[in-house]
């Protein structure tokens, strides 16, 4: 049904003439048209207005030519729906004025009716699907429970999420309670996205790499596994763990359709650690997009040679940086389309 189905083929592990390409955070601040809307509407207004979310989602499809769209939204709409206040402060990032660090605040966290609290996301998906007209697939996403937990407890971004980790080791029972509430909400939220029409979902464990391999298996992975178990028979699931190369063996056996990797793990090593059979996605260092376009193209071809063209989705190893020239983002995508 979808005209360009390279991305879905790669998720099914089918042979393709070239790998598909999209970029994490592709609907973002490096696009001048995005900046025009950012100047007019604050962050959560853009997320909550289906017309705006749709317009932003399709921008990179038309302007950069990626093989998949990812819905413009944010992972932090989930804690917002759970009765946790989340603000997006300009030039600062996420700000949660009442972080969850004790029994009283934990008890105020709810598992919401996602259709009531997050209906605007489902509206945006339906509108975007219409606008995309089956040209390319649409990816829906959520943060991993651990990554959402990091923001809920820390209250803001952090280089080490020290307060979030402190809570895990001083109040492990409460930590697990919060992680389970986030997981239950996320499963319901993603099922709603599937009903609304997304073609695949990605779970972003952006801060999984903050944990030791042993603690990752306690505080992050089991909750992602619950999400995969609940969704894998409905839709392909991609699990992206930044800095989580040490868990690729377990992740490969999870039922996920693909695993995202960042640039600290080579393609060769990622294939080895994941057992060689599962589709991998990644892992261009976003900073490398500052190189001249001809160098970007060479590096992309080298990357595809290393991962192999099949069971592979070309992507960055994390989100695109705001000050990347659009021409360079285009060179990244064109390089994949020129690959032979
Ligand atoms: O990928 C896409 O283009 C789809 C949209 C998307 C956004 N956030 C839009 C956004 C996605 C998939 C996310 C996920 C997200 N949000 C993650 C996981 C992926 C990752 O990058 O690690 C995380 C950790 C967040 C939380 C978040 N949202 C932070 C830390 C920030 C501020 C830092 C920053 O980059 O500015 C945001 C804000 C945000 N979310 C922006 C965008 C385009 C930029 C702010 C703005 O537009 O006003």
From TrEMBL:
One of its GO terms (biological process) is protoporphyrinogen IX biosynthetic process. SUPFAM superfamilies: UROD/MetE-like. It comes from the Bacteria. One of its GO terms (cellular component) is cytosol. The record marks 74 as: Transition state stabilizer. Keywords: Cytoplasm, Decarboxylase, Lyase, Porphyrin biosynthesis. Its EC number is 4.1.1.37. Transmembrane segments: none annotated. This is Uroporphyrinogen decarboxylase. It comes from Psychroflexus gondwanensis ACAM 44.
């Amino acid at each position: 049904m979808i005209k360009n189905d390279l991305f879905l083929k790669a998720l099914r592990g089918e042979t393709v003439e070239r790998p598909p390409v999209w970029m994490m955070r592709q609907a973002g601040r490096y696009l001048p048209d995005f900046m025009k809307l950012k100047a007019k509407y604050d962050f959560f207004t853009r997320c909550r207005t289906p017309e705006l979310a749709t317009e932003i989602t399709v921008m990179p499809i038309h302007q950069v030519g990626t093989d998949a769209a990812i819905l413009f939204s944010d992972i932090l709409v989930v804690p917002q729906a759970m009765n946790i206040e989340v603000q997006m402060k300009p030039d600062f990032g996420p700000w949660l004025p009442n972080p969850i660090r004790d029994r009283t605040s934990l008890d105020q966290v709810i598992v919401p009716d996602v259709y009531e609290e997050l209906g605007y996301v489902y509206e945006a998906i339906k509108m975007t699907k219409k606008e995309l007209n089956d040209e390319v697939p649409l990816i829906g996403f959520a943060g991993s429970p651990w990554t959402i937990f990091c923001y809920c407890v820390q209250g803001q971004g952090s280089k080490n999420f020290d307060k979030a980790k402190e809570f895990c080791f001083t109040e492990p029972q409460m930590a697990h309670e919060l992680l389970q509430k986030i997981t239950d909400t996320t499963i319901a939220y993603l099922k709603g996205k599937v009903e609304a029409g997304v073609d695949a979902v990605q779970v972003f464990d952006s801060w999984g790499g903050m944990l030791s391999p042993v603690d990752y298996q306690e505080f992050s992975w089991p909750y992602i596994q619950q999400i995969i178990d609940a969704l894998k028979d409905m839709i392909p699931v991609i699990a992206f763990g930044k800095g989580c190369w040490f868990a690729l063996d377990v992740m490969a056996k999870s039922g996920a359709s693909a695993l995202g990797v960042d640039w600290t793990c080579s393609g060769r090593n990622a294939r080895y650690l994941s057992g060689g059979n599962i589709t991998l996605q990644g892992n261009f260092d976003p900073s490398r997009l500052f190189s001249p376009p001809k160098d970007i193209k060479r590096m992309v071809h080298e990357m595809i040679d290393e991962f192999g063209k099949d069971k592979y989705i070309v992507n960055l190893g994390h989100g695109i940086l705001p000050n990347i020239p659009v021409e360079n983002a285009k060179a990244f995508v064109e390089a994949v389309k020129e690959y032979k």
